[in-house]
Each structure stands twice: as structure tokens, then as C-alpha cells.
Amino acid sequence: MHCRGHQKGRDEIPKGNRRADQAAKAAAKPPPPAEDQAKVLICKQEPQSSMPNYEFYMNLRKFEPHGEFIEIILHKWQDDYELLELNHDYIQWLFPTRTQGRNFYSTPLNPQETRLMVNTSEVQQRLRRAYNMMLKFFGVKIVGEEEDKEITEVERAENFASRFENLTINPHNNLRITRILHSLGELGAEEYQVPLVRFFLKEILIKNRLPRMKKSAMNFFIPAVRDSQDRQDLLFFFILNHIGKRKKKFFTNSVQQNLSTGILLKLSGNNKIRFPYFTKKV
């Protein structure tokens, strides 16, 4: 008769003894090479890239979450207006700024990344292609760019009627336009800012289109323009074409007096006046 520890059959060996044997065998194995240990550590603690926006624009990574490479977007998305409308994650990658957007998988621009993107021709080419794609989505097109003019104007595209209707139905696109304007200024393409803002001001104030864009144009589009003189001129255009119609109702009482004084100084030839403008964060 055998004691239980010596009985035949593996299942009858006490579990505690088996675990001790397994631990002993594991301890007897040589440790993995230091190189392999480093690889495991990297996999577990892989640091985030310091320049994700640059990598995205160089077609080295997809936007997040569940995104695509930028070349796929520029080739296959440009005529898919439904996709461009319903997907809310690509715009923060396509037009990065220094502030965090609503897509928390995106990363704000940092100074080093911004300088690199401004000075990389491949990035600049893709930025302009992305801008053209979004203009088409908004019902707008660039004119005269192929003529290498200093100022590139924009005008209504052939599809403007349906696209303007979409802008009215989906006013969240006003936020997208604001982001695009800021991004163009950050990434060295500020020459596109004024023509786009002026275009929308004319559509809103003169042609009486896009009624749900008026406040965004005043509060966000104009302040997004980097050059102070350009901002002043755009604000002056807005004032002249709006105050007479609404009798200053659009402006708060605290701002009305400053605006009125600014108009008089402007009309009197004082070009040094700087009009107040709103800088609400979006």
C-alpha cells in the first residue's frame, strides 16, 4: 500500500506538489536575452508620437479612431459628401490647430511639428488638396489659382445650391470652417483665409444666403484671420453691410458705441483704427 503522494496516476498527485514542480522548472529556464526583454517593454509602454499630425500628412499613419490614410481621403472621399458630413473624426486631423478638438484621439499642433509641416512641400501640397476638397463640400471653388496670382479668390461652385442647403441644415459645419481657417493660418497658408471669409460675408449680407452662418462669421470666421489689418477690413465690411439692416440689433450694447466710433474714424480716413472683434474659443 502506498501513501497518497506515491500512488500511481498523475491525477492523484497533490496539486500543491505539481505547482511547486512547475515553479521550479520555470525558475530553471534561462532568462530571455536583454534585447528580447527590451522589445517586450517597448510593446507594453510604447510612447505616443510627438508629431502625429506630421506623420498623418506624410501618409505614414491613419487618423484616429477607425480612420484612413490621408491619400485615401483625398482620392476616395472628395465626392462622398455623405461620408464627409457624417464622419466627425477626420476634420481634426485634416486641419490641425493648436487647440484640442472634440476628437480626443487627435493631438494639437506643437511648435516643432508646425515648423516642420510649414517647411515640408509634400505637406503643403496635401494641405491645399484637403482645402479644395472641403471647399467643394461647402459648394465653393477656387478661381485663378493656376494663374499663380498673389491673391486666390473663391466663388460659388456648380453644386452650390445643394451644398448651401446642407450648410443651413447642418450648422455644425460652421465649426469646421472655423477650424479650417485657423489651421490654414497655423500651417503657412493664410493667403486662403481672407478670400473665404469675404466670400461667406458677401453670401450672407449681400445675397441673403446662409442665414444660420451669420453669427459664426462675425464671432469666429473674422477673428480666425491672422493679419490684423485684414481682420479690420473684414469687420468693417460686415458692419457696413449689416448695421443698416438690423439697426445694430446683432451687437451687444457694450460694443455698439465702439463700433459706431470706428465707422466714423474709418470714413474720416483714419486707417489706424482697430475694430473690436470677438475671440470666443471653439
UniProtKB/TrEMBL annotation:
Signal peptide: none annotated. Residues 8-22 have a biased composition (Basic and acidic residues). One of its GO terms (molecular function) is opioid growth factor receptor activity. PROSITE patterns: RNASE_H_1 (PS50879). Residues 1-29 form the RNase H type-1 domain. Residues 1-36 are annotated as: Disordered. Pfam families: OGFr_N (PF04664). One of its GO terms (cellular component) is membrane. Belongs to the opioid growth factor receptor family. PANTHER family: OPIOID GROWTH FACTOR RECEPTOR (OGFR) CONSERVED DOMAIN-CONTAINING PROTEIN, OPIOID GROWTH FACTOR RECEPTOR OGFR ZETA-TYPE OPIOID RECEPTOR. This is RNase H type-1 domain-containing protein. It comes from Leptobrachium leishanense (Leishan spiny toad).
